[in-house]
Amino acid sequence: MLLRMTDPGGNEQPLLERKPGWGDRFVGPEDDPRAEGGFEGERATLVGYLRNQRLTLELKCAGLDAEALARRSVPPSNMSLLGLVRHLAGVEQYWFREALAGRPEPRHYRAGDNPDADFDEAVADPEAVADAWRTWRAEVDFAERFVAAAPDLAVTGHHDGEPIALREVLVHLIEEYARHNGHADFLRERVDGRIGQ
């Protein structure tokens, strides 16, 4: 049965059939790269849960072409899966390069005075997709190396002129990814019906 919804303009839109990947999960256990917990110690716990959130973003985008990744599938929102990748590349850049490492650089995917350029300019172009993933992976790599080299989680940087510890940044990034992975759940479901963890 094809369900229908009414969009904000009063037009009926078809809803896709919901398709779990495996049971109630996005992928089967043998294909899921995420850990089930069991981390020992504060650093391993924070790093492990952040890694799981990063992997969730990759899973939610897996198997989609440039058009599907750039599709703003939950109108009237300007969000797309590609926009989330671009946005989170900038988030990683700001917190680890600028706030903690003290290396300010122009923020990825911010054009002039448009703070939403990471979403607004996410276009259905294979090179734009490849660039977004390259940029995101480079920022994740920098962040992972920074955390691994830090003598402890009390290492401090600055955010808005105030000191902030690595520990707090890791918690914030887990929260940021969890929030946006919730968005990714809805975006992906509206692209092809795929649901799951």
UniProtKB/TrEMBL annotation:
Feature: compositional bias, Basic and acidic residues: 15-38
Name this protein carries in UniProt: DinB family protein
Gene3D superfamilies per the UniProt record, alphabetical: dinb family like domain
Matching InterPro entries: DinB/YfiT-like (IPR034660), MST-like (IPR007061)
Chain residue ranges for the region called Disordered: 1-38
Provenance organism: Streptomyces akebiae
Pfam family for this entry, one: MST
